[in-house]
Design brief:
The chain has 155 residues and is of the alpha+beta class. Helices cover 40% and strands 26% of the residues.
Amino acid sequence: MSLTNFLITPDGKPEPFPSKLLTWTLICCGALALYLGGSRAIWEQQARPVGFETIGTVIKNVSIVDGRDHSTKFYPVVKFLYRADTSLEFQSNFGAYPPMYYPGENVPVLYDMTNPKNAEVNSFSIDWFPIILCFAVGVIFSAFGLYRLQKTKIL
């Protein structure tokens, strides 16, 4: 099938807009977004520290300039009590502009008891927002593409 045949309706008239191309693009983009959301959810569960939750305090924000788009993101440095006499500090892997947390603010910390330096801020938005966004985009694109496919009976 050539591209010219792809853009012609069954009655031989050229399509005003390539509906086959749009339909399949929506379905493929939706499927890709669903795949990425699922992959991120699996990765999130495997990469997240397994262990204990405690409260930490943000002691500062480290500003880092992203080399790709030259934007500045602020990564919180958090101090938490590991044992009754031992405190640890870590820099979060998640940065934002403007900063999500400010010095002096208490944040939930999840850390691995066998390796307490493996710690991260325990936040629903940090963990699940990208996953929810991917799934939402995937469902919307796929549903719209499948609706167009069913409505126009394009195969």
